[in-house]
Design a protein that fits this description.
The protein has 115 residues and is mostly beta strands. It has a single domain, classed as Immunoglobulins (Immunoglobulin-like, Sandwich), CATH 2.60.40. It is built from 1 helix and 6 strands. The relative contact order is 0.20.
């Protein structure tokens, strides 16, 4: 699956031979991930992912968005939001996408990803 392939590539990039899979990314789609300033623990927040196709051809993407709970040490506690989206970008066009994970108490809840 796409998820398994990404997991293997990510693991290799952090291992003793990070050059194993090289850099296969197409450089004609710009991806920008941002959130508002001042996110407070336990409060809702919005993540915006902007995609821009800078090529003269259509591009088809699989966008995997994952949000995790992490300790201050960098150790991941668990995943509370995971979305997969198929996106078709027209030539020289962009598309923003917003995700609004909601955390409540010690058990985070997540809502859908809007466009």
């Amino acid at each position: 699956t796409d998820e398994e392939r990404i997991a293997v590539v990510t693991a290799c990039r952090h291992g003793s031979r990070p050059e194993t899979y090289g850099d296969e990314c197409a450089c004609d789609v710009d991806v920008t991930v941002s959130t508002e300033d001042g996110v407070i623990m336990g409060q809702d927040f919005t993540v915006t992912i902007s995609l821009t196709n800078t090529s003269s051809e259509c591009r088809s993407l699989t966008l995997l968005v994952q949000a995790v709970v992490m300790y201050y040490t960098g150790v991941v506690k668990g995943t509370f939001k995971r979305d997969k989206h198929e996106v078709l970008l027209e030539p020289h066009k962009g598309r923003p996408s917003g995700s609004r994970p909601q955390a409540s108490g010690s058990r985070p809840q997540a809502s859908g990803l809007g466009h």
